[in-house]
Structures are given as structure tokens and as C-alpha cells.
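Human:
Take a look at this sequence-structure pair and walk me through the C-alpha cells.
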Amino acid sequence: MPSTKDIRRRIRTVKNIEKITSAMKMVAAARLRKAQDRAEAARPYAEKMREVMANLASSVGEIEHPLLEVREERNVAFVVIGADRGLAGSYNSNVMHKAMREIGERDPAAVKLVLIGKKAAGFFKKRPYQTVAELSPPGSEVAFADIRSVTTQVRSMFESCEVDAVYLVFAKFLSPMRQDPTVVKLLPMSAPALDRAGFPLDRAGFEIPPDQGADFIFEPQADQLLGALLPRYVDTQVYQALVESQASEHGARMTAMSAATKNAGEMIDNLTLQYNKARQAAITTEIVEIVSGAEAQK
């Protein structure tokens, strides 16, 4: 049985850990509030941009643009967004395993990776895939300028036919306790799904009435308009993925540190009980020794 001195040392150590995890929980909670506001503010714009561009792509089939070219997927690029730090529960591993499931049985020579975050780079370091870029995630205030290096590179790879498709892997923020690893096909942009009659379907799977279909007259010319909007569309989707990832990371870290603080408190209670039992046993032993010595002198 450990001595009271050892137990006291363990209690002191666990209390220090509890202070650290509690502080990290409060910091993550403060950052989560701001990150969640950014993610929720950017989400409607990104979803509407995706919807409008998909409808435009289905309505102007005669227009040719490098970012709309659909090819057989022989070489594929994956943009994987992880974190720079750990202590966020299963956040990083869930995103990486989602990426691995999406890569599946593809030939490693046909897969190119753009990795954001040290955890993503560390995960794929020993795997047989070509990493074309390793980037650090931007700070708390994400701006479009922070993601231009990523979007410029993936657009260049797709336009030069170096890859035939680009997928974006990130964690979508749902709540502080739930983050959904998500895969989005970034390039080429796909048109909306059609029903058997050929009418487009919305995201819920319901038919869009013909009078609500996309019927556009372009001014300026459609190719010029799409040439300006398509790069902006790619920027918007990567920006949205980054702010969602940041909110997911802070939510996962807050939840993990909350659980760690709770576990530390329970461990302190158990160690305190164990200490009291050891101290009581030591006192009882001393009393027995004193009584036995007194009896021996009679």
C-alpha cells in the first residue's frame, strides 16, 4: 500500500493537472464562442454560393471553363484540414480516418495531398501518399487572404490536368460535443441532382418547380461572369471549411478538457479517501503499539 507521503504527492500532482485542464477549458470556451459566430455567419453565404453556382453550371452547359471540366478520376487531390495542436479528444483522428476512408483503395501514386495543420502532416508522414504542400492553419481571425495559397494551388493543379478532381476533408461544426467529419467535392463543380423527369432537386430531395428553375440572361458574357465567380466559389468553400474546422477544434478541446477536469476531480476524491484510510491505519497502528508497550510494562 502506498505511503501517505506518496499519496499526498499524487494528490498535489493531480490538482496541478486539474488547474491546467480547467484553464484550457475556459480558454477553449472563449475561443469557441467567436469561432462559432464566424462559422454560423459564413455558412449561409457559402451554401447559397454553392447552390447558385451549381444551378448556373447546369444552365450553361455550352460554356467551357477549366474548373467545370469533368474528367475520369485517375489522379485525385485531397485538401485535409487538421489542427496544429492536440488535447482535443478524437477531433484530429476522426478527420484523418475520414480522409483515409475516402481515399480507400486508390493507387497511392494517384493521390496528392494538401495538408493544413501539423497533426495532418504528422498523420500522413509515414503513409505512401505524395504531399504537395504542408501549411499551418491561420490564426483566429481567418481572412480570404489566408486561404489564397491553398486555392491557387489546387486550381492550378486541376486546370493543368495534374489532378482530375479535388476533395476537401474537414470537420463540420454541429455543437461543442459533436463535430461531423465531412468530405466535399471541390472541383470540378457538379450540377444539382435531377429526378427521373429531368427536373432539378433541392438539397432535401424535393423537385424544384419549373418556374423556379435557373433561367439567366448574362451581362457581361456568361464565360466572363463564370470566369470571375468560379475562383471566388473555390475560395468561399475553403474559407467555410477553415472556419468550421476552427469551431470544431475549439469545441472538441473544450469538451475534452471538461471531461479531463471532471476525471481529475474524481481522482482527487479517490486519492483523498485512500489517504485518509492510510492515515487512519497508521494512527491505529501507533495506538496499538503504545497500548501493547504499556501492557508489556505491567
The longest strand covers residues 165-175. The first helix runs from residue 4 to 59. The chain has one domain: 21-206+215-255.
